[in-house]
TrEMBL record:
SUPFAM superfamilies hit by this protein: NAD(P)-binding Rossmann-fold domains (SSF51735)
Taxonomic classification: Eukaryota, Viridiplantae, Streptophyta, Embryophyta, Tracheophyta
GO MF assignments: NADP binding; oxidoreductase activity
Segments forming domain 6-phosphogluconate dehydrogenase NADP-binding: 53-139
Protein name: Glyoxylate/succinic semialdehyde reductase 2 chloroplastic
PANTHER family: CYTOKINE-LIKE NUCLEAR FACTOR N-PAC, OXIDOREDUCTASE GLYR1-RELATED
Length: 140
């Protein structure tokens, strides 16, 4: 069974702050880039070009603009949302659509999830046809 990491964050109480940093190694980015069959690319601030397929689950207030920016930067983006009509503006920009989180994860090298709450995150990641079903070694 493939290993996977799924992160969920909620807003901290007003008296506390939350600071987290996600670091992706150049080797991991290079491996994903080398295995990608897409000719699209994105040049990150660290000087590593990523040419893989990107999945995006959750197209709400934060997810839609993030996915839109990836598309505008030239990334090959596949999207999914519980309310399919929220995918339409991104499809008009060139995104692809898959009907389940599992299908997004299986068709992409990297999959992001931007969901409303921990319950939604757990359902989309581990529920029926969840993203975890589509993960394989080397994908995340």
């Amino acid at each position: 069974m493939p290993a996977a990491a799924f992160f969920s964050a909620a807003l901290p109480p007003p008296s506390r702050t939350l600071s987290r940093r996600l670091v992706v190694s150049r080797a991991a980015a290079a491996a994903a880039s080398a295995s990608a069959s897409s000719s699209s690319g994105w040049q990150g601030g660290g000087g590593v070009e990523f040419q893989g397929k990107v999945g995006f689950l959750g197209l709400g207030i934060m997810g839609a603009p993030m996915a839109s920016n990836l598309i505008k930067a030239g990334c090959d983006v596949t999207v999914w949302n519980r309310t399919k009509s929220k995918c339409d503006p991104l499809l008009s920009l060139g995104a692809k659509y898959e009907p389940t989180p599992a299908q997004v994860a299986s068709s992409c090298d990297v999959t992001f999830a931007m969901l409303a709450d921990p319950q939604s995150a757990a359902e989309v990641a581990c529920g029926s046809s969840g993203a975890a079903e589509g993960l394989a070694p080397g994908k995340g």
